[in-house]
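[step 3/7] inverse_fold.run input=structure_tokens len=444
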């Protein structure tokens, strides 16, 4: 099934390339060099082929590969077979009936390979394997952003001149969205011995790059943004049906609904969503609340809410673009890392959960949200509460852009001059009290 999806995704990517500039589709301004790199190192020759180590490196700063994990597929250049594999497995052996003696592990012309689960047998382990296909982003934890496995290939040739790299690579991570380049032969990899005193060179090396496009990954958004502020009692909600209303009837209002209990299973990327009923119909909502305004600082609360009963979001990331992030003074509950910095601009950063504390956003319900509060230092030359400046320019959750409300719907200032010059924290109740005092003074 995985390879079928991969073929469809590749076909769609080709069609999109004809309609839109492919570089523009995959380009990410917040992570311009982000990609997933796949490298094959031929370690030794065998009587009819070779043994190779295959590594998958997630070089994306904030986009991870979530459960149920990655799968990669390709088309053999000749009539190769897979004799054995360590650290991963194939999803389908294929037709090996022509073999009378030793039977290959896989005879498929277009094999699909997936990672092993944690707790795999000792004799199946390989360096950086067995994570269930889950890879963190490079910005979160480089040590867990790499996967690898070893493969023994037969009927492939036994020299640099006769071995040909596979063709038409595809990557699911875990759903569609990635487009892979052709495999190119590169200078052989060099590795150091454990004591660092000697080098070992691969017999042959080829590599390829897979880049992500949200347009290819999903037809509709997966996240939306709502806004509120201390100076306005109105909340700007997510746009209605912004994530699609095709399944408007497939939602649950009551947590005790029997249909929910029957449907509640381990989440998979290709499983149907079971969402809590909302106007926006999104599995994730990010709420940005301008909480207070002080003399030299101002405070923001960010809340991420999960409305998907079938999904726990582990190792999530939230990317925010706001001009005042260059003066972030304090953050609670979350971790933060600045992203692209173009001196003197530093307006984009990644938020993510603290391991074993809030790295997991549980399924919809009373545990389905997490939040943080930011304290930002004011730049008196740029700070304002007017014209929506206090709200983010863009947000990305788990690498996909969240839909913002229209700018003319942002919470507005009742009196811009008064609020922009006020040196301390102001709430709507303070405004009301001030108004009442002024009225009393007029009539006294």
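[step 3/7] decode complete -> sequence:
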């Amino acid at each position: 099934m995985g390879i079928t999806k991969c073929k469809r995704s590749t076909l769609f990517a080709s069609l999109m390339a004809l309609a839109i500039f492919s570089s523009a589709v995959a380009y990410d301004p917040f992570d311009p060099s982000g990609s997933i790199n796949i490298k094959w190192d031929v370690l030794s020759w065998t009587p009819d082929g070779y043994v190779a180590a295959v590594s998958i490196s997630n070089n994306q700063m904030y986009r991870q590969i979530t459960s149920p994990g990655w799968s990669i597929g390709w088309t053999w250049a000749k009539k190769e077979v897979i004799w054995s594999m360590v650290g991963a497995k194939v999803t389908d052996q294929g037709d090996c009936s022509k073999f009378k003696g030793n039977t290959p592990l896989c005879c498929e012309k277009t094999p699909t390979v997936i990672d092993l689960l944690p707790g795999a047998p000792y004799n199946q382990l390989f360096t950086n394997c067995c994570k269930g296909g889950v890879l963190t982003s490079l910005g979160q934890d480089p040590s867990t952003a790499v996967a690898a496995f070893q493969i023994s290939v037969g009927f492939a040739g036994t020299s640099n001149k006769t071995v040909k790299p596979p063709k038409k690579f595809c990557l699911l991570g875990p759903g569609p969205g990635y487009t892979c380049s052709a495999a190119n032969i590169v200078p052989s990899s060099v590795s150091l011995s454990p004591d660092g005193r000697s080098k070992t060179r691969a017999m042959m090396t080829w590599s390829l790059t897979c880049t992500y496009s949200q347009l290819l990954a999903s037809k509709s958004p997966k996240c939306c943004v709502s806004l509120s502020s201390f100076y306005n009692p109105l909340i700007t909600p997510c746009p209605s049906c912004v994530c699609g209303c095709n399944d408007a009837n497939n939602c649950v209002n009551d947590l005790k609904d029997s249909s929910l209990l029957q449907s509640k299973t381990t989440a998979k990327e290709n499983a149907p969503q079971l969402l809590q009923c909302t106007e926006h119909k999104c599995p994730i909502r990010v709420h940005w609340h301008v909480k207070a305004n002080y003399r030299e600082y101002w405070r923001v609360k960010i809340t991420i809410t999960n409305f998907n009963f079938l999904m726990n979001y582990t190792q999530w990331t939230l990317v925010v673009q706001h001009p005042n992030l260059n003066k972030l003074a304090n953050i609670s509950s979350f971790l933060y890392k600045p992203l692209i910095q173009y001196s003197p601009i530093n307006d984009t950063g990644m938020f993510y959960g603290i391991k074993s504390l809030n790295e997991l956003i549980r399924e919809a319900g009373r545990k389905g949200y997490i939040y943080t509060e930011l304290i930002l230092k004011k730049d008196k030359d740029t700070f304002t509460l007017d014209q929506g400046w206090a709200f983010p320019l863009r947000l990305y959750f788990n690498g996909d852009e969240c839909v913002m409300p229209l700018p003319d719907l942002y919470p507005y200032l009742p009196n811009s001059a008064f609020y922009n010059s006020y040196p301390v924290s102001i709430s709507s109740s303070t405004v009301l009290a001030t108004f009442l005092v002024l009225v009393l003074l007029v009539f006294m």
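[step 4/7] annotate
DSSP finds six helices and 28 strands in the chain.
The first strand starts at residue 36 and ends at 46.
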